[in-house]
Design brief:
The complex is a heterodimer. Chain A is mainly β. Chain A has strands spanning 3-5, 10-14, 19-21, 24-26, 33-39, 46-52, 59-61, 64-69, 74-79, 88-95, 103-105, 109-114. In chain A, the strands form three sheets. In chain A, strands 2, 5, 6, 10, 11 and 12 form a six-stranded mixed sheet that branches. A four-stranded antiparallel sheet of chain A has the order 3-9-8-7, with no helix packed on it. The chains are: A mainly beta, B mainly beta.
Amino acid sequence: AQKVTQAQTEISVVEKEDVTLDCVYETRDTTYYLFWYKQPPSGELVFLIRRNSFDEQNEISGRYSWNFQKSTSSFNFTITASQVVDSAVYFCALSEEGGYQKVTFGTGTKLQVIP
Amino acid sequence: NAGVTQTPKFRILKIGQSMTLQCTQDMNHNYMYWYRQDPGMGLKLIYYSVGAGITDKGEVPNGYNVSRSTTEDFPLRLELAAPSQTSVYFCASYRGGATDTQYFGPGTRLTVL
């Protein structure tokens, strides 16, 4: 069975600080997919990234970066120079299939960026 | 493109009533999904579809039904609503490529009293 753990329930940082959101996963498959989603206070869901288990390269997109480490079963998300607009709940998720059919979500980390 | 649209945005049902949550996407995506999000939790997959005429159960399908007669529409039917179905429901779609983005609708907040 697959499982995603986001141990940090809530994090508060001051604007411009860097922050890392942790995600640890469990799966028996050698092929799997990892995701991050953002849910702002307005409630909508925004897909951020999808990464397959064969691609361990770190990903950077603007102020966002993701560190995938198979050895520790982690897929951590870092926001550099945080901004108030980054305040949201962030979900990490795992799928053992290529699509989004069997995705298991973590319980989310609420990030508050204080001006 | 409107993306993924959902109606209604809010609904209150009485126990035992039925309703259909509508979901439409205008991106010609093959894959569509229905999720529910309970307070303080991540999403759980209810049903999904890989194309018109093809649907399958997700993690929590009991109490729900779906159909996919067209590529654009993927309605979710609640029969005999129960308080346990109080949740926020999200519809999503995805074209199907290895790096394609999944798009979400704005959600429907359903309360069953």
